[in-house]
Amino acid sequence: MVDFRMPSLGADMEAGTLVEWLVKPGAEVKRGDVIAVVETQKGAIEIEVFETGRIEEILVPLDAKVPVGTPLARIRTAGEVAVPAAAPVPTAAPTPAAAAPAAVIMAPQIAPSPPAMPSRGLRASPAARRLAQERGLDLSAIVGSGPDGAIVYADVERSAATLPARAEKKRALGLDLAAMRAAIAAAMARSKREIPHYYLEHQVDIGRAESWLAQTNADRPPDNRLLFGALALKAVANAVRRFPAFNGFYREGKYEPVPEVHVGVAIAIRGGGLAAPAVREADKLSVDELMAKLRDLVQRMRAGRIRSSEIADATVTVSSLGERGVEALYGVIYPPQVALVGFGKPVQRPWVVDGAIGPRPIVTITLAGDHRVSDGHAGALFLAEIGKLLQEPDKL
Amino acid sequence: MNDAAATVTETTYRDAVREAIRDALRRDPRVFLMGEDVGRYGGCYAVSKGLLAEFGPERILDTPLSESGFTGAGIGAAIAGMRPIVEVMTVNFSLLALDQILNTAATVRHMSGDQFGVPVVIRMATGAGRQLAAQHSHSLEGWYAHIPGIKVLAPATIEDARGMLWTALQDPDPVLIFENIMLYNMTGALPASAGAVDIEKAAVRRAGRDVSLITYGGSLFKTLDAATALAREGIVAEVIDLRSLRPLDDATIIASVRKTRRAVIVDEGWRSGSLAAEVCARIVEQAFWELDAPIGRVCSEEVPIPYPKHLEIAAIPQTPKIVAAAKAALRQG
Fold first, then answer.
1. Most exposed: A40, B39, B159, B241, by fewest CB within 10 Å?
2. Spacing of C-alpha B14 from chain mean position
């Protein structure tokens, strides 16, 4: 039996609200299935399961806000034998206290009831829950004064006067831009506070990439065409494989390179949001597959539905301003990652090719690197490698 | 002018039970008392002392030491039209008569298609506290409360000791009355006019607002003491005396819990499968959304009631345990 827990969807996440269960107890799930939706500051995230098996028990009700790591459901993994739902609870074992009879008489602390089951999630009494529901109050915002800090009726009554009704909050799934802004603020402030950034830029002629794209796209329907962004992503993914100092996490004073390459793609959201969901194992995908993933990601991100594995574990981030951007961007690393590669807008520039000056499409590729982990020299080689890979788009 | 209602006498629970039996014997010629040592000896707990002299051996019958035999005889007499009061010395011994009570008394109306009823009253002593050891000290009334077809009463006050018997004798079906042995010596005031009382309702013995302490029989006064102790700390406990263990007065229990949102049940029976468990289940079934804390139970430790005084005291509900359980429900434990 394994616990399906509230995942950490980023370094800044402490708790999430369970807003949708997509499975019922008894359902068969396999690794990678989306089984729940959790609302976080980043919006509603689809949570995937990492085990294959059967949902044995749902532990957290809808709309409960629980800390990261809280078991949300219990899963019986394939091969495990079914156990009755009520696992034997050790009740008060016969107390050996009989050895000290005098103390027994005096001491009323003989447990008045068997030990309670370990608490799961938010502790609120049934009376408190009902009152909160009637008044439209968010229990997670109320401090409990009952047994073990449980929220009781009187606590809700007291809060009713001061708390805004939850009904005013939008309950629809989707993005809460204000919350997202707060999350960005927290992550970026932390990044600039903790990470000694260094910046490099490298101008790359993408003429070959552009003509390869034009050739490849010539006989494709519009929604099947490749964009330069996919090539850029692929080039970064392939390059970090050779430069592991840019692909991993800096945590608790120590850098851990990650063998897999999950490239976070910064996606702007209308209205002022920004998120960087990951394309998982981007180095192993073909450019076509990568393009399909990108389309899907952008679409779902803007619809406010993103999966837990995508949001949580990007190992490096790519930010591309595209056609409407500026020539160069200097990114802020998303902690605990250690590098961000920026792609500016491709511009026509006079360029010397084979001793002659001619117009070439030039892209400025930048690197924001974490100086605790890598130095400018390595960063330069890394950027140069990306530029080199873009010269042979057919091999990406 | 001698207003009977105004005349209050100091009496004991034992005397109140005796007065109830005497009153019934006088009022209804069909009533008689039978049991071990109820005649010449005056009853194991001296409840029937003097009744043999007053009513004679035809109505105060000493029986052989055979609970199954004499309880069965009482049941037969009831079917035949008499109104017997059968005394069983303690609930432990009543297990020998359980077949008669469960398989005959409780079922005859059902099995005869309502042709026969069993208007018998069976009284028995229950509870621990007199160092009578494990075969004389248990509280098994909760087991009887499991049985459809009978009523189970637990008079805790002198008024109920005086008043429940007559009402029970009017009932067309078997009624079991459990008298806690620690109550017999309890003294209190009883109006001379005291008479029959209802045997259906639980009673609020002390009104409160913070927690409902639900109990019956011998634990009532420990619970009232606990409520007094709690009041000194600003906790206003409500004390419910169940009085009738079958049927249970759900309405009174639930109304109290709705008000206080917390409940602690005090029951001298063992915890597992206890009457306290039944009360707890009913509260959860009917008032789940009103609750502010897990329901607490103060029951006997799950051991044969020990003989040594200090262990006997430790084995059954006591005031400090009740106070602790009430505080736990209020987080002030």
1. B159
2. 14
Is there a cis peptide before residue B172, judged by omega within 30 degrees of 0?
A: no
Q: How far apart are the C-alpha atoms of B306 and B318, rounded to whole Å? A: 15
Distance from CA of B310 to the nearest CA of A (A): 6
Going by C-alpha positions, the residue among A317, A360, A320, A367 that lies closest to residue A344 is A320
Q: Is the dihedral of CA B225, B231, B235, B240 positive or negative?
A: positive
d(CA A342, CA A367): 6
B279 touches chain A (CB under 8 A): no
User: Closest approach of chain B CAs to the CA of A230, in angstroms?
Assistant: 55
**Is the peptide bond prior to A222 cis by the omega test (within 30 degrees of 0)?**
no
**What is chain B's pLDDT, residue by residue, as a tens digit (333 residues)?**
445 556 889 999 999 999 999 999 999 999 999 999 999 999 999 999 999 999 999 999 999 999 999 999 999 999 999 999 999 999 999 999 999 999 999 999 999 999 999 999 999 999 999 999 999 999 999 999 999 999 999 999 999 999 999 999 999 999 999 999 999 999 999 998 899 999 999 999 999 999 999 999 999 999 999 999 999 999 999 999 999 999 999 999 999 999 999 999 999 999 999 999 999 999 999 999 999 999 999 999 999 999 999 999 999 999 999 999 999 999 754
Strand, coil or helix: B80: coil
Q: Structure pTM?
A: 0.56
The answer to whether B289 contacts A127, with C-beta atoms less than 8 Å apart, is yes
